[in-house]
């Protein structure tokens, strides 16, 4: 019989590439991971890994088992959800990972609803960059997490996760109040405030400028939108910001609408959609997104399409 905990380690080895990375993700020692994978090989009756010094690669049998591991782990999530659904009252931990702007705008209403409807739930919120959410879900550090991408910088769906759409929001060019800038093209000679290299916000700003035929003259890097808007208001440059980040624009900043959109989704492990705790979290976030969208007049829309 194949141990599902060991299957999870093999699946994560295929994703992360090294035993040390798997050990870090699961808070094990590298030697403990190696021992568990060796035990999995004995259970499978086949060599799953080839080792050359410190390098480890999957054998053809290992790749086959990884594909089946995804199916097995999904089925276990569904079984856990079915058992939990038999309970009369929701209780236990509910761990939510969300990016800062969502923590400030969407989560408060969702947490209030969850606390009122399910007082026995233990609510835990972790501020997470969307790029960190898939790993946090796989490693079971969170139960649901918020992701986002942009139409100009789409992110491929993760095969281990399911998602439900929450918000489709406009993106703006933030410029100092009193300036005549009315488009990205008008900002080609401006200085820019962009996210740190490697972040999605950095990529989006560069792609929008490239589409307009220029490379931005970056003066500042900032990842917190409050900081970004303060720099813009101080005349230090212009910046691309999603509407969720500026529910109340500062008086010294003007927002120029762009045609670009940002899409926010709630993600959970594949197979766990029927778990009552996950379903309660998704419903609360969905209602919070609906209320937020209807309380603004900025073109924010909501969708319940599921990938």
TrEMBL record:
Q: Name one Pfam family in it.
A: HTH_1
Recite the UniProt keywords alphabetically.
Answer: DNA-binding, Transcription, Transcription regulation
Q: Does the keyword Plastid apply?
A: no
In terms of Gene3D superfamilies, this protein maps to:
Periplasmic binding protein-like II, Winged helix-like DNA-binding domain superfamily/Winged helix DNA-binding domain
Annotated HTH lysR-type domain ranges read 2-59
Tell me the protein family, please.
Belongs to the LysR transcriptional regulatory family.
The molecule here is called LysR family transcriptional regulator
Q: Which organism is it from?
A: Actinokineospora soli
């Amino acid at each position: 019989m194949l141990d599902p905990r060991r299957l999870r380690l093999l699946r994560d080895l295929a994703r992360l590439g090294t035993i040390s990375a798997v050990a870090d993700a699961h808070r094990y020692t590298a030697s403990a991971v190696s021992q568990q994978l060796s035990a999995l090989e004995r259970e499978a009756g086949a060599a799953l890994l080839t080792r050359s010094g410190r390098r480890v690669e999957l054998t053809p049998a290992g790749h086959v088992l990884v594909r089946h591991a995804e199916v097995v782990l999904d089925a276990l999530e569904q079984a856990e959800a079915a058992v939990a659904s038999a309970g009369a009252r929701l209780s236990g931990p509910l761990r939510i990972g969300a990016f800062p702007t969502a923590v400030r705008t969407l989560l408060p209403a969702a947490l209030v609803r969850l606390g009122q409807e399910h007082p026995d739930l233990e609510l835990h919120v972790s501020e997470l960059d969307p790029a960190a959410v898939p790993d946090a879900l796989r490693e079971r550090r969170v139960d649901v997490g918020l992701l986002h991408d942009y139409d100009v910088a789409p992110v491929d769906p993760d095969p281990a996760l399911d998602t439900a759409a929450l918000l489709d929001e406009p993106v703006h060019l933030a410029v100092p109040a009193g300036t005549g800038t009315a488009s990205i093209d008008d900002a080609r000679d401006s200085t820019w405030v962009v996210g740190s290299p490697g972040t999605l916000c950095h990529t989006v700003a560069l792609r929008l400028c490239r589409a307009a035929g220029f490379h931005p003259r970056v003066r500042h890097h900032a990842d917190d939108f409050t900081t970004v808007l303060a720099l813009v208001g101080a005349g230090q440059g212009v910046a691309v910001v999603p509407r969720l980040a500026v529910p109340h624009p500062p008086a010294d900043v003007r927002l120029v609408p762009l045609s670009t959109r940002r899409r926010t989704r709630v993600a959970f492990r594949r197979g766990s959609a029927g778990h009552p705790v996950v379903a309660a979290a998704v419903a609360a976030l969905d209602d919070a997104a609906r209320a937020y969208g209807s309380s603004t007049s900025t073109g924010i829309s909501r969708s319940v399409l599921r990938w």
